[in-house]
Each structure stands twice: as structure tokens, then as C-alpha cells.
Specification:
387 residues, alpha/beta, Rossmann fold, 2 domains, six-stranded mixed sheet
Length: 387
């Protein structure tokens, strides 16, 4: 049963990142949190110094989907932009689309070209990506987000403790729902919209619930699953149901479907929490009214993680043949604390979030992870806050 769930989780993660949009998604800004590039020591499986020859570093990013999701994949794209601007590398970005059968020939074609680093990610793509890497032991690969703990000797991989960031998101939502912000009601009720009812998405949900209950044990969470990751209209429909049921704030882990939350929030003058990227910033220039209702975003700092990995490759300290897990303490996850967050969250609310961040950093707060739970355990947590 667990193997089936893991497979479904992998499918979820790739779908949540994918969008049907074909635009370049380059209008976002980097998250405020950053990841230090120092601190690791060279090992037998560390990368050689890529800059030793004096040649310009050549890095290619293969997107398992399409840019324009204003979330996961656009964050990876920002990472390669940072590699170009900060490290002076020659870079290329390839959108592979959503047809998984096309991934292997694309990976093979790139692996046969002259790139110093080949970067891709997302767990459904990882199996094919790692297989191609194994066939090209002379090349170096970075997987920027995978569920696979074991990786080939020439692959450096990352994954993220999304439950840490979701814990903070839940705490923000719980504080906001009884804050007296315009449009809120006295009910202690918030919402969650998932793409599918699978471990990869429920990792967001469990963290969100635990963070909300940390603030108020009596909080209620309305939960919906869209069964789709590319349907904003469905996301809006389900979000309107949640707002009408009394939720003041909705957090979504549903890819493009989750964009519908913001449409519903704007219509109802309610609030939302973004995911993976600082989504308020992404809308600020095009729809300020919508942006100003996104209190914060639960973020994977994928752009900074990619930059960090490439810096370590240049330094000769990137350790291949292993996966590194990045949570809040490692700077791999966090929440957006932009001017909108500062405006909507008063000083007392911000102080409570800062206290939680300190406790996550020290390990005093440990957040459960749905990826390692049985279905019944997740159901118990979900039911504990059911209205």
C-alpha cells in the first residue's frame, strides 16, 4: 500500500508543478530567504572544480512541464537566471511539457551535448532523469526536487520539508482568521485546497493543520481536493464553497488549480496563502487587488537551492551520489514576508510567527510529515479539525 502511495505522491508533485501556460514566467522575484553556499566539505564524491579550466560554466535546466505556473517551476527558472547573473554562466532553459513519454529522449539528447551541469527535477521525472544520468557517468546532474532517497553517483539531489513551511502558513492563517482584518468573521475557521488526496499534497495539509492548532487548538479547517492541478476554474469553485462555509483564509497545494483561490478571494474580499513562490509579488504588477489579499506564501526556495548547488559545484564541494533534505533550519523552506505580510500581520502576530521560526530553527518544534504516515493517520489529523 505504501508503495502505491509513494507512486501517487510522485505523480502529485509533478502535476502540481505543471501548467498549460506557455509563457516564460519570468516576472517573479526571488524569495527573501536564502541558503548559504558554504559549510560543506569536499569528499570523494564531490564535484571537480568546474572553474579550474577558466572556461565559462555551461548549465542547462530542463523544466518537467511548462513555465508560467507562478509557483514551483517558475522558481526553478529564477534559479537558473541567478546562476547566469551571479555566476556568469552560459545557461539554457528547455520546457519539456506535460507528456512524460517525451522526457527520456529530451534528457538523452541533452546528455549527449556539452553541458557542465544538467538540472531537472520533480519526482515523476526523477526516475527517467536518474536512469539517463546512470547511462552518462561522465556527466554531472542536479535534481532540484525529488522523493527518491537513493540517487546515481553522478547526481546531486534535493528535497524539501514542505511541512515546515506549511506549519508557518497554518499559524499565519489561524492568526488572521480572528484578527479582525476587513472581511473576516468571528469563526475560527480556515481552508485548504489540495490537488489530490495523496501523501505529497497531504504533507502540506498536515503541516498547515499542526501550525494552525499550535496557535489555536480549537481551529477548524475546511478541506477540499480538486482532483486536478491545471484547472483554476475548479479551484475557484471549491474556494468559493469554502469561503461561503465561513473560512476567511485558504491555503492551496494544487498547482495551477490553486490560482483559482486568488480569483475567489478577490471576489469574496477574503484572504489566501500562496505556495512554492512568493505569489503576492507575482501578481502585484498585474492585479494589485488580488495580490493584497495574499497574506503570505509557503515557499520552497528552489531558486536559491539551485544557485547554492551550482556555487558548490564551482567550489568543488558539491557532493554527488546523495540527496540533501532542506527544511526551514537549512533555509530550504520558509514563508514570504513582504510588504503585504507586514501590512496585514500586526506586530503581535509577527512576533508569534517569529517565535515559531526560532523554535523550528532550534528543533523545539518538529512537524509531522504525511509522506511517512499511513492513510489512517492523515485521516485522523484531518478529522480532528473538521467543522
Amino acid at each position: 500500500m505504501k508503495k502505491v502511495l509513494v507512486l501517487l505522491a510522485s505523480l502529485t508533485l509533478v502535476l502540481s508543478a505543471c501548467s498549460n501556460s506557455g509563457n516564460n514566467g519570468n516576472n517573479g522575484s526571488s524569495p527573501t530567504a536564502s541558503i548559504s553556499s558554504g559549510g560543506s566539505s569536499a569528499a570523494a564524491n564531490a564535484s571537480p572544480n568546474a572553474a579550474a579550466s577558466g572556461d565559462k560554466l555551461r548549465v542547462v535546466l530542463l523544466i518537467p512541464g511548462n513555465l508560467g505556473d507562478k509557483s514551483f517551476l517558475d522558481s526553478a527558472n529564477r534559479g537558473i537566471e541567478l546562476v547566469k547573473s551571479e555566476l556568469g554562466a552560459e545557461t539554457k532553459v528547455i520546457e519539456m511539457g506535460t507528456d512524460l513519454t517525451k522526457y527520456q529522449p529530451i534528457y538523452e539528447d541533452i546528455a549527449n551535448q556539452d553541458w557542465d551541469l544538467i538540472i531537472s527535477g520533480n519526482s515523476t521525472a526523477s526516475e527517467v532523469f536518474h536512469a539517463v544520468a546512470s547511462e552518462h557517468p561522465d556527466k554531472k546532474f542536479i535534481d532540484f526536487d525529488t522523493d527518491f532517497a537513493e540517487v546515481p553517483e553522478n547526481v546531486y539531489a534535493m528535497n524539501y520539508k514542505v511541512n515546515d513551511a506549511s506549519f508557518l502558513a497554518g499559524a499565519v492563517a489561524a492568526l488572521a482568521t480572528t484578527s479582525g482584518l476587513p472581511g473576516t468573521n468571528p469563526d475560527k475557521k480556515i481552508g485548504f485546497l489540495g490537488g489530490l488526496d495523496v501523501p505529497g499534497i497531504n504533507a502540506f495539509l498536515v503541516g498547515y493543520i499542526e501550525g494552525a492548532k499550535y496557535i489555536d487548538p480549537e481551529i477548524k479547517v475546511v478541506t477540499s481536493y480538486a482532483g486536478d492541478f491545471t484547472n483554476p476554474a475548479k479551484g475557484k469553485e471549491l474556494s468559493l464553497v469554502q469561503y461561503n462555509a465561513g473560512a476567511d483564509v485558504i491555503f492551496g497545494a494544487a498547482g495551477g488549480t490553486g490560482l483559482g483561490i486568488f480569483d475567489a478571494a478577490k471576489e469574496q474580499k477574503k484572504y489566501a496563502v500562496g505556495v512554492d513562490s512568493d505569489q503576492a509579488k507575482l501578481f502585484l504588477d498585474t492585479d494589485a487587488e488580488k495580490a493584497n489579499l495574499i497574506i503570505t506564501s509557503s515557499m520552497k526556495n528552489i531558486d536559491q537551492s539551485i544557485l547554492r548547488a551550482v556555487k558548490n559545484f564551482q567550489d568543488g564541494t558539491l557532493k554527488f551520489g546523495q540527496r540533501e533534505t532542506l527544511g526551514f533550519a537549512e533555509g530550504g523552506t520558509g514563508i514570504a514576508e513582504n510588504e503585504i505580510y507586514g501590512k496585514l500581520m500586526n506586530a503581535d502576530m509577527q512576533a508569534k510567527i517569529n517565535d515559531i521560526k526560532s523554535k523550528l530553527q532550534s528543533g523545539e518544534i518538529k512537524v509531522d510529515d504525511a509522506n511517512s504516515m499511513e492513510t489512517a493517520e492523515v485521516e485522523k489529523i484531518r478529522n480532528s479539525v473538521k467543522p
